[in-house]
Write a structure and sequence with these properties.
There is one protein chain. The protein is of the alpha/beta class. It contains ten helices and six strands. It has helices spanning 2-7, 30-33, 36-43, 80-92, 126-132, 142-147, 153-160, 189-198, 201-218, 221-233, and strands at residues 69-72, 99-102, 115-119, 136-138, 165-168, 184-186. Strands 3-2-1-4-5-6 form a six-stranded parallel β-sheet, sandwiched between helices. It is globular and about 60 Å long.
Length: 236
């Protein structure tokens, strides 16, 4: 604005609030004018995905969508084998259990008879499916699982709905949810089945409610925004 430009008129080389030189804003990039401390701060600071509690929360379970395990994810080349390991193979080995599969691309797959394919699940239906399953499975992409410390939004959304989650093991999961108390961790398909065999509606509810408390206390977008604001304010 004209007021901001006038503010720096006495020293046109002074950085604006956006880090751009007012003298030659087209010739100097933001990166070239930022303080070195700016990059040092961001190099050691991670801003993760989080929960929006206004959109993902517990709702009344729908009996027609009840299942032992619900997984939602599109069919992707870097996740397909992991979905087979953690979801489809356990389904094949547990014909007495019901599995629900949501996401695009699975119609052409050879699905076990006890897997009901839902197709694309719209955002407004996430809470319904998360609240109706005994357990909800998350399977990270191969790269995310290998390097860790990359919780997908799906984890926070399911926790926000107080779902009992089973997640594939990846480094750093304990930084976000406590294993066996707020989340169940599986290193392979056998672990998934072992968790399902031990779960009861009561234990699943207890784990899901603990996960919900954790994300509401520490992992909402409001808290992430405060983290970003604090970081940027410290650079002024």
């Amino acid at each position: 604005s004209a007021q901001k430009t006038a503010k720096f008129a006495e020293d046109p080389n002074k950085l604006s609030h956006k880090g751009v030189s007012l003298k030659n804003p087209q010739k100097r990039s933001v990166a070239s004018t930022c303080r070195p401390s700016f990059f040092k701060h961001f190099a050691r600071t991670s801003i993760y995905n989080a929960l929006d509690p206004d959109t993902h929360y517990p709702v009344e379970a729908r009996p027609q969508y009840a299942s032992d395990l619900f997984f939602m994810g599109n069919r992707l080349t870097d996740r397909e084998e992991r979905v087979r390991e953690f979801f489809l193979t356990p389904a094949s080995n547990a014909p007495d259990k019901r599995f629900l599969l949501g996401g695009n691309g699975w119609l052409t797959g050879d699905l076990p008879s006890n897997v009901d394919y839902l197709g694309h699940v719209y955002t407004q239906d996430h809470n319904m499916f998360n609240s109706s399953a005994l357990a909800v499975l998350n399977v990270n992409r191969a790269g995310m699982a290998r390097f860790g410390f990359s919780p997908p939004t799906r984890v926070f959304e399911a926790a926000g709905a107080a779902a009992c989650m089973i997640v594939d093991h990846w480094p750093g999961i304990e930084e976000f949810l406590t294993p066996d108390e707020e989340v169940l961790v599986a290193k392979n398909g056998q672990d998934v089945l072992a968790h399902l065999d031990k779960l009861t509606p009561e234990s699943a509810s207890r784990i899901g409610q603990a996960a919900q408390r954790r994300v509401l206390e520490h992992h909402t977008y409001e808290q992430r925004a405060a983290q970003v604001h604090s970081l940027l304010t410290s650079l002024l």
